[in-house]
Specification:
The longest helix has 22 residues. The protein has a domain of 35 residues: Wheat Germ Agglutinin (Isolectin 2), domain 1, CATH 3.30.60. 27% of the residues lie in helices and 15% in strands. By secondary structure, the chain is of the alpha+beta class. The chain is rod-shaped, with a radius of gyration of 30 Å.
Length: 81
């Protein structure tokens, strides 16, 4: 009985080391090796965000609607006065 326990322990240790060794041999990520494109003047790294006067959702300034110095996220939130 002791021999079976010892044999099982040896197999478990070998299995652990083989699994640990194989996990370190993962192939490199091809997306990680891709060069990043530099940011140019016509391609800003961030845009100005504005807050909707009705629902307080933040949208980019380019997507927002401006009316009487207030920004709105969609036409439905513009007051009908």
């Amino acid at each position: 009985m002791a021999r079976l326990i010892f044999l099982g322990l040896i197999i478990a240790v070998i299995f652990y080391f083989v699994k640990h060794y194989l996990s370190k041999k993962t192939p490199p990520d091809p997306a990680h090796d891709q060069p990043t494109q530099p940011v140019t003047a016509d391609q800003p790294d961030s845009e100005d965000m504005v807050q909707c006067a009705t629902c307080q959702v933040h949208v980019t300034r380019a997507e927002a609607f401006l009316l009487k110095q207030h920004f709105y996220c969609c036409q439905a939130h513009i007051p009908k006065k």
